[in-house]
From TrEMBL:
InterPro entries: Dimeric_a/b-barrel
Organism superkingdom: Bacteria
SUPFAM superfamilies (UniProt xref): Dimeric alpha+beta barrel
Name of the featured protein: Antibiotic biosynthesis monooxygenase
Organism: Chitiniphilus shinanonensis
């Protein structure tokens, strides 16, 4: 399983940002191997973190190459004060199962 974590500080959002953000999220959901997503915001700093999950790297690469994603990369300074992207291969996932999570759809490795 792979995850892409997009962390950013906001600058100024406009209608174009909201439109493009929604379209990219939908494009992610349509890629092969898409498992789910979640988002977090730090109430102290306003920093936002979006995490997307895929069963394999192909879906992640498809989103990276998508024209809408490329447009957002070109225009990010209009809306963001800064960003960091973390691409990860998930080695293990486990929990008590009390709530649903996209990572539960992946096959976990045995706990050590």
């Amino acid at each position: 399983m792979y995850s892409a974590t997009f962390i950013f500080d906001t600058h100024q959002f406009d209608d174009d940002f909201h439109r493009l953000d929604a379209q990219i999220a939908e494009a992610a959901r349509q890629t092969a191997g898409y498992l789910g997503e979640e988002a977090w915001e730090d109430p102290k700093t306003g920093r936002v973190c979006n995490v997307y999950y895929w069963s394999d790297e192909a879906g992640l690469r498809a989103l990276i190459a998508h024209p809408l994603h490329q447009e957002a990369k070109r225009r990010y300074s209009e809306w963001l004060s800064g960003y960091q992207v973390i691409i990860s291969q998930v080695l293990r996932t486990y929990g008590d199962g009390a709530f649903g999570h996209p990572a539960r759809m992946a096959t976990p490795l045995p706990q050590e």
